[in-house]
């Protein structure tokens, strides 16, 4: 399993950065290769991705969510294996540090090659840069989900 870590500082309050990240169905607007995310319920999302010409569908489960602080998830179905956490740190009234840490297990030849050549790491860096552009270009976040999910709960 490969670990990917990227941090970006965004010029929005922590609440706005967190609220926008909870709008999972908008991920295709800034995540390369993500074609669709459907939120199934408060904990589960269904993803469709196409990376290097390979289409994958998989499900994720949110295992820990604390508003304005973090969202942790893991895959629970499909060919993709990953887990991760995105955390939000208030820097001041109008600036937030957003850190994404993921463990990714490449499942096929294309994914293994992408991992070995650093493509996955570059893609995550680009996604975080595009999230910064996306949230900073908006007048306000497009929605929010402020619920709390506890580990094992």
General description of the model:
This protein has 153 residues and is α+β, with helices and mostly antiparallel strands. The chain has helices at 14-21, 109-116, 119-136, and strands at 2-10, 34-39, 44-51, 54-66, 70-78, 81-92, 95-105. It has a 7-stranded antiparallel β-sheet with strand order 1-7-6-5-4-3-2. The longest helix has 18 residues, at 119-136.
Please write out the topology.
Layout: E1 2-10, H1 14-21, E2 34-39, E3 44-51, E4 54-66, E5 70-78, E6 81-92, E7 95-105, H2 109-116, H3 119-136
Antiparallel strand pairs: 1-7, 2-3, 3-4, 4-5, 5-6, 6-7
- Count of extended strands: 7
Distance between the termini: 26 Å
> What is the strand arrangement across the widest sheet?
1-7-6-5-4-3-2
**Which strand-content bin applies to the residues?**
35-45%
Count of helices?
3
Structural class call reads alpha+beta
| H/E element order | EHEEEEEEHH
Overall average residue pLDDT: 89
* Residues in helix, %: 10-25%
Major sheet size, sense and barrel closure:
7 strands, antiparallel
* Unreliable residue runs: none
What is the 3D shape?
globular
The Cα radius of gyration reads 15 Å
